[in-house]
Design a protein that fits this description.
There is one protein chain. This protein has 151 residues and is of the alpha/beta class. It has one domain: Cytidine Deaminase, domain 2, CATH 3.40.140. It contains six helices and five strands; from the N terminus they run H-E-E-H-H-E-H-E-H-H-E. It has a five-stranded mixed β-sheet with strand order 2-1-3-4-5, with helices on both faces. Strand 3, helix 4 and strand 4 form a beta-alpha-beta unit. The termini are close together. The structure holds zinc ion (ZN). The site of zinc ion has 6 residues, from helix 4. Zinc ion (ZN) binds next to helix 4.
């Protein structure tokens, strides 16, 4: 839960949504991201930014980040986030939730935050609780455990 404390610090200092992708087996942060949406790119939600950074660190074809940690942390487990936990300072939207399914994370922890949650839900046009509905779908090829954290 040390990571959830860090997320709590982010969300108190800034209203942007923050994400940490954490390798609990090694106790290492493998990626992080903030909400970077703009009119030029509406898809830069915090989860997508963090997943893109992790992908690039594992040999993706896009430009590498300047973070040395991310350049040197390959995931030997196959899928992008196999065995990793994701901490988010607000419930992820439907797009981000599906990206987490495809990345094959182990666990999702998100902070209960009404102010960010409401804005996020309106921006995405879906309910913030869509994360629960998504994981109720038995036909998906991967599922993970979801935890609300109250900081
Ligand atoms: Zn999102």
């Amino acid at each position: 839960m040390k990571k959830s404390h860090e997320i709590g610090q982010w969300s108190r200092s800034d209203k942007k949504i923050g994400v940490v992708i954490y390798d609990s087996a090694k106790g290492t942060i493998v990626s992080e991201g903030y909400d970077c949406r703009s009119s030029q790119n509406i898809l830069h939600h915090a989860v997508i930014v963090a997943l893109n950074r992790l992908s690039r660190s594992q040999g993706g074809t896009e430009l590498m980040d300047s973070c040395e940690l991310l350049k040197t942390y390959p995931n030997p487990n196959g899928y992008l986030c196999t065995g990793f936990d994701v901490y988010v300072s607000a419930p992820p939207c439907l797009m981000c939730s599906m990206a987490l399914v495809h990345s094959r994370i182990s666990r999702l922890f998100y902070k209960i935050n009404d102010s960010i949650d409401g804005n996020h839900a309106l921006d995405d046009g879906v309910s913030s609780k869509s994360v629960f509905k998504l994981f109720a779908i038995k036909s998906l090829n991967h599922s993970f455990h979801v935890f609300e954290i109250n900081l």
